[in-house]
Amino acid sequence: MDVLGRPSILTSSLRRAKLVSMLVLAGWIAGCSGSAPPETIPLPPESFKELKQKIAALRELPFKREVSLVNEPPGTVEASPEKFFTEPYLGQSIVDISRIYKRLGLFPESTDFAKALADYSRLERIFYYEASRATIVMTPDSAELARTMSGAPNRNLEQIPTVLALAQALQEQNFQWQGRLKRVSLEDRKLAFGALAAGDASLVGVNYLRVFQQTTALPGSDLSMAGWAAALEKMGSHLPELLRQKLVFPYREGSQFVRWAHAAKGWTGVNGLFADPPLSTAQILHPEKYYLKRQNPQRVTTPGLAQQMKPPAVVDQMLGEYLVQLLLMSRLSRQEATQIAASWTGDQLSAYQDGEPTVTVWITAWQSDQDAQVFFRVYQSLLEQSHRLRFQSPAGGGPGIQAELSGGRLMLLQIKGKFVLLLDGAAATRAGQLSNAVWQDLDVETESTVLFFESAKAATQSLSSR
Q: pLDDT tens, 312-340?
């Protein structure tokens, strides 16, 4: 029986797949005397109703509402850059985020952030589940993405976008995941939550290909979704590096994270992830920090600075390990950037309107004093090259280094123990006071670790919920 109480279609589909496999084998034996390769016998196209039943059975979750399918005509999902200037990004102003990310070095100064974000959002929503109408929406780009993945039109692979969208529908109907994602305003946490959802959907896609599309020759013997991430990255090749990598991160990294839970406890283990999700991209990148010995990110706050700056912060963010890695990749190889960023334990990015300019404060926490020193040296070089400035020791001594900006303002880069502070845009007469306020009232909350799995592959172990 399937999850809706109807006779399971898995058995009949598997019989059909075995029959087709026998036909393929017979054709291969008959053609051994010739030089031409055997032709693959494609499975007949299946109805949307059949596909829904298959995905519900594979994922072992019910559809709690009837789901329909619509295809968007070309141009209906295009978003103009002007639209993004009037709408918030992660609950904050696009103008502020754009300016501050450029000051940090995440984007080149010449980047049209609103235009790039419009293109990114279009590719992020190639297919999606609209909960209010219980409708799966497929855009014209979805078929193009499937063709890019296979290298040529292929009927079997063209089902994959719909399969992933159906997995999204199951997530929303059973875990209300879209609503939770919308409420997340931290960049790092939103990426982690998105990676969980995409990893779950990717695993459904892998199982669908393995069980129902046995006649399709896919690159890679493990039928992984690596081709999907590569095709998506190719379609986003015109995006700035940060947005292009954010686009593929959920599928590329999320799939390997979710596999740990599935290997330990099957789909029950994956369901447990939605009840107790990963809190940072560090846990997605290093699954052992979630499954073996729980290591949540450190929460860094600067109450003393908030008291000094009378208006509230216009930006309040945590960038996380993955964005730090991408930041460093603008000057280092991926291997070097990955190695340095892996020592990240937490960060806090704040920005305040102090008159006309914006004062940006970014403090990062690292595993050791030595790790902080490595990041400090690399980040100094990155900032000097990005903004064409020169850091020097402050006149009369003082901690760290500083660079003069226009309008009598400074950029400070300081290090104390495991922490590195960037203070950008403060008036020279006030910069020392603000940096002192950060260090004097720096508050770091370290959450206790909890043992989850002794082994990620032990089928008898289970996920804990907090």
A: 899 999 999 999 999 999 999 999 999 99
- Return the sign of the alpha-carbon dihedral for residues 6, 10, 13, 19: negative
409 DSSP 8-state letter: E
Amino acid at residue number 94: I
Residue pair 409/426 in contact by the 8 Å Cβ criterion: yes
Query: Per the structure block, which two tokens stand in for 351?
Result: 């920005």
Phi, psi dihedrals of residue 360, rounded to the nearest 5°: -105, 135
Instruction: Give the CA distances from residue 243 to residues 115, 121, 181, 247, in Å, rounded to whole numbers and listed in that order.
Output: 12, 10, 18, 6
Parallel/antiparallel/unpaired status of strands 315-317 and 344-353? antiparallel
The alpha carbon torsion through 109, 101, 394, 303 (nearest 10 deg) reads 160
Domain boundaries, the chain: 46-77+125-290, 299-445
Judged by DSSP in three states, 320 sits in helix
Per-residue pLDDT, 210: 84
Q: What secondary structure does DSSP assign to 119-137, as a single string?
A: HHHHHHTSEEEETTTTEEE
Burial 365-386 (b: 16+ CB within 10 A, else e): bbeeeebbeebbebbbebbeeb
> Taking residues 399-428, what's their average pLDDT?
95
Report pLDDT for 150.
61
> The whole model's pTM is what?
0.83
> For residues 290 and 253, what is the distance between their CA atoms, to the nearest angstrom?
14
What is residue 92's DSSP assignment?
A: B
Contacts of 432 (CB under 8 A, 6+ apart): 398
pLDDT in tens, 165-177: 999 999 999 999 9
What's the CA gap between 363 and 26, in Å, rounded? 65
Question: Rounded CA gap, 253 and 281, in Å?
Answer: 9
Q: Is the confidence at residue 108, as pLDDT, over 50?
A: yes
Q: What is the architecture, at CATH level 2, of domain 299-445?
A: 3-Layer(aba) Sandwich (3.40)
